[in-house]
Amino acid sequence: MTNQEIFDKIVAHLRQQKARSVEGNVCLYRSTDGLKCAVGCLINNNAYALELEGKAVGAIEVRSALLVSGIPADDENTISMLRRLQSTHDDKHPDRWELDFEYIAKRHNLTYTPL
Fold this sequence. Notes:
Layout (H helix, E strand, L loop, with lengths): L2 H15 L4 E2 L2 E2 L32 H9 L7 H16 L5 H11 L8
Antiparallel strand pairs: 1-2
Helix pairs in contact: 1-3, 3-4
């Protein structure tokens, strides 16, 4: 996948979900109620493991799961974009996501389509 395709997939996922994937105050790649975070939505079922929870996007285990899922996690520009999208999910209320999507798109030379 290209960074544009990855960005579009994450934005579409988060817009549809309209909620953070959390349990308590902890953000998760996948929560027990079926929600997925910005990066979690990219990880295929066969690549996901509970051991990914609590690990950063740049951790080797997460990168490996992303690579198996067809995401170029060996590219530092992709990882940088994923970190920013993950931070948007983790740190901002869903009402504030669109502002971050626009900023991330500009920073990574991507096309952003507002709602």
